[in-house]
Amino acid sequence: MTTFTVLDPATEEPVAEVEQLGAAADEAVARAVGARAAWRDVAPGERAALLDAVRGGKQSGLGRELGPDAPVSFTEIKNVFIATEE
Predict the structure, then answer these.
(1) Are 7 and 81 in contact (CB under 8 A)?
(2) Residue 61 and residue 41: Cα distance in Å, rounded?
(3) Cβ(82)–Cβ(7) under 8 Å?
(4) What is the spatial distance between Cα 37 and Cα 26, in angstroms, rounded to a whole number?
(5) What 3-state DSSP class applies to 8?
(6) Half-sphere exposure of 19 (CA within 13 A, CB side)
(7) Winning range, highest mean pLDDT, from 22-26, 30-34, 53-57, 68-72
(8) Residue 85's beta-bridge partner residues?
(9) Which of 6, 16, 34, 66 has the greatest number of C-beta atoms within 10 Å?
(10) Within 10 A of 62 (CB to CB), how many other CB atoms are there?
(11) Which of 14-18, 57-61, 70-74 has the lowest mean pLDDT?
């Protein structure tokens, strides 16, 4: 099993050892990249309907559920440093 170390970006201290995924993860990423062009061509209203069907119904807005500062926390830039052994 190959692992890599996840570092806290603020302190650069190790926070976890994570198993490096192999071919299955690579295949999932490739399929997602391949689906991107088709998804881009779907109209926004149709995208919303498809996501609602998968999710099981529309939820209220972030501001009502998580408070007025919720959109800010979703748009903050976050850094993650991953050290790998070669």
Answers:
(1) yes
(2) 25
(3) yes
(4) 18
(5) coil
(6) 6
(7) 30-34
(8) none
(9) 6
(10) 14
(11) 57-61
